[in-house]
Design brief:
The protein has 101 residues and is mostly beta strands. It has one helix at residues 58-67, and strands at 3-6, 23-27, 34-35, 42-43, 52-55, 72-75. It is built from one helix and six strands; from the N terminus they run E-E-E-E-E-H-E. Strands 5-2-1-6 form a four-stranded mixed beta sheet, covered by helices on one side. Strands 3-4 form a two-stranded antiparallel ribbon.
Length: 101
């Protein structure tokens, strides 16, 4: 019954950074998921895989796990590399790759 503590990245549909500063504690799956032969659904008897506990800071999540004796690992968030691009660069005369239809 180990857990993972991480800060989720923004979704592909987000342009801002809302809901990215929080930290989650999720339990690792104890058993692999199975496919139901009749309907084809993915099922699991592991109820702890449904638990997600939300914390405001990393320290709160670590303190909760240590208080309750839960072995855990912390995954640090990766910072996104932002490139500053300009819309007008699409129409420059000295482009490296020619723009054609």
């Amino acid at each position: 019954m180990s857990a993972r503590i991480y800060s989720p990245a923004k979704t592909a549909m987000q342009s801002g950074k809302a809901k990215t500063g929080r930290w989650l504690l999720e339990f690792d799956p104890e058993a692999p998921k199975k496919i139901d032969p009749l309907m084809g659904y993915t099922t699991s008897g592991d109820m702890k895989s449904q638990i997600r506990i939300v914390f405001d800071t990393r320290e709160e999540a670590v303190a909760y796990a240590t208080k309750h004796g839960i072995p855990f690992r912390v995954q640090e968030p990766k910072e996104a590399k932002r490139r500053q691009i300009s819309y007008s660069d699409n129409f420059r005369y000295d482009r490296k790759v020619p723009w054609t239809h």
